[in-house]
Structure formats: structure tokens, C-alpha cells
UniProtKB/TrEMBL annotation:
One of its GO terms (molecular function) is 4 iron, 4 sulfur cluster binding. The keyword Metal-binding applies. This is ATP-binding protein involved in chromosome partitioning. Keywords: ATP-binding, Iron, Iron-sulfur, Metal-binding, Nucleotide-binding. One of its GO terms (biological process) is iron-sulfur cluster assembly. It comes from the Eukaryota. The keyword Hydrolase does not apply. Belongs to the Mrp/NBP35 ATP-binding proteins family.
Length: 258
């Protein structure tokens, strides 16, 4: 009775969305939302119609990372109209209720389901879901509500983040969602004034080994990039602001892996 079933393609509430991609991490603060946002905007740059669902109700990041001019959510025919920035559709609990959520798990899962399925996403090539960190009820509810096509796992090199990566990979394995990419974020720093120098500030992670062990086809280290952080803090995705940069190229290779 406890068997976990992946939602079947037939009962997908988001039937005009071609691909649903989860971006997940096991710990908070590793850059999961940053990766979700920049991946989504890269997919748009490559010609896709894209939406981002911020599924982190306790700590929504999308309202800070992407700041459209119109921040007022409207409703039409009982559906929620997503906000929009540079053609990307956006939904977050933080847009609806900027107060912090103090709710128990089952209420959160319900609310998140509603947000996900009652938002009028229209036809999309990709919906990127910024998952809440961890591998608990809420994450499983999402897997059971929508038919995820792929998962991208984000970690930092530190052992504290890495030790749980396998839990995340195994969670997606249980619900038959393939992990297609492993991003080791903030892995190194390249100073502008010393060419070809890389500092691995937190040591080397184990992403390559984990990717080999679990058959994850794309594994990449992303730098700690103060420019990316600055643009993020200003509500503008770095891949739009710094479109010719190295970080944008890394996001393009990630986009081709999903
Ligand atoms: P999470 O979703 O895992 O909690 P966030 O995406 O919110 O993490 O990122 C946490 C903070 O780290 C943010 O301030 C973000 O701008 C910053 N950050 C994320 N990735 C990088 C990076 N590669 N370089 C510099 N800062 C980063």
C-alpha cells in the first residue's frame, strides 16, 4: 500500500507542458534556485517556451531572483495567471503571499499542488520546478502529482551537501524519474586578474564518482561567480545579463543535457 507511484502521463494535470524538469538539492543554500532560474532562461534563449514553478513554500526564492515589473497575480476563470519576465512564466507562493508560510506539511503539500496544477501555464516546452530542499513528503507529493521527465541535482563540494546527494538520486529512482545532470555548484573561484587560475575553495567534491555510480550522463562543476550573485540579488537572471560569459556557456551545456 505504501508503494510510491510516479504519476502516469495520462493523468498529468499539466497536459500542455511537454517536459517537466525538477531541480533538486538535499540541502538548502547550495544554489538550487539559482540553477533552476538560469537553466529556465537558457532554455528560453534556445527557443523554448518555458515556465518556472517555485515549489519551495517555506522559503520561496523566485520573487527575489526574478523581479518582473508586474508583481500582481491575477485570476481568470478560476485559474491563476502566472507572472511573466522575458517570456518566461513564473509562479511562486511568494508572489501570492509575501508573508512567510507557517503551516504543517499536509497543508503545504495541498497548497503546492494547487499552485502547480491551477496555474494556467498554457502550452510550454519546459516547466522547470524548483523543488524544496530535501527528500520528504512534499517532494514525493510533487513526483506523484506531475509526471516528471527528468531531475537535475545540485550540490556544493562540501561533504555536508554531498552526503545527501545519493538520497536525492535514490528518491527520484524510486519514482522512476531519471537524474540527467549533477551540478557541483560554487566548486571553484577564478580570479579575473590571474589568468587560468582556479581555487577549489571547498576542496574537490565527489560528483564524477557519483555520476558514474548512478549513470548520470551530465556532470559539471560551476564556479563561484560574484557577478552571478550580484545579478541574482538584483532580480535579473545572470544568463540574460551576462549572455556571452563563461557561466552562460555552462548553462547552455546543462540545457542541452535536459
Ligand atoms: P538554494 O536554492 O539551494 O537555497 P540559492 O539558489 O537561493 O540556493 O542560492 C543561495 C545564494 O548563493 C544566493 O545568494 C545566490 O545568489 C548565491 N549563489 C548561488 N550559486 C552561486 C554561484 N555559482 N556563485 C555565486 N553565488 C551563487
Amino acid at each position: 500500500a505504501n508503494e510510491i507511484n510516479r504519476a502516469q502521463a495520462g493523468d498529468r494535470p499539466l497536459n500542455k507542458v511537454k517536459h517537466i524538469i525538477a531541480v533538486a538539492s538535499c540541502k538548502g543554500g547550495v544554489g538550487k534556485s539559482t540553477v533552476a532560474v538560469n537553466l529556465a532562461f537558457t532554455l528560453t534563449k534556445l527557443g523554448g517556451k518555458v515556465g518556472i514553478m517555485d515549489a519551495d513554500i517555506y522559503g520561496p526564492s523566485l520573487p527575489i531572483l526574478v523581479q518582473p515589473e508586474n508583481k500582481i497575480v491575477q485570476y481568470k476563470d478560476g485559474r491563476i495567471i502566472p507572472l511573466e519576465y522575458e517570456n518566461v512564466k513564473l509562479m511562486s507562493f511568494g508572489y501570492i503571499n509575501p508573508e512567510s508560510a507557517i503551516m504543517r506539511g499536509p497543508m503545504i503539500a495541498n497548497m503546492m499542488n494547487q499552485l502547480l496544477t491551477e496555474t494556467d501555464w498554457g502550452s510550454l516546452d519546459y516547466l522547470v520546478i524548483d523543488m524544496p530542499p530535501g527528500t520528504g513528503d512534499i517532494q514525493l507529493t510533487i513526483c506523484q502529482t506531475v509526471s516528471l521527465d527528468a531531475a537535475v541535482i545540485v550540490t556544493t563540494p562540501q561533504q555536508l551537501s554531498f552526503q545527501d546527494v545519493i538520497k536525492g538520486i535514490q528518491m527520484f529512482g524510486k519514482v522512476s524519474v531519471p537524474c540527467v545532470a549533477l551540478v557541483e555548484n560554487m566548486a571553484y573561484f577564478e580570479p579575473n586578474d590571474i589568468p587560468d587560475k582556479r581555487y577549489y575553495l571547498f576542496g574537490h567534491g565527489k560528483s564524477q564518482k557519483i555520476a558514474n555510480d548512478y549513470g548520470i550522463p551530465f556532470v559539471e562543476s560551476f564556479p563561484l561567480d560574484p557577478d552571478l550573485c550580484r545579478w541574482s540579488d538584483n532580480g535579473i537572471p545572470a544568463v540574460l545579463a551576462l549572455s556571452e560569459s563563461k557561466i552562460s556557456q555552462l548553462y547552455q551545456s546543462l540545457a542541452s543535457a535536459v
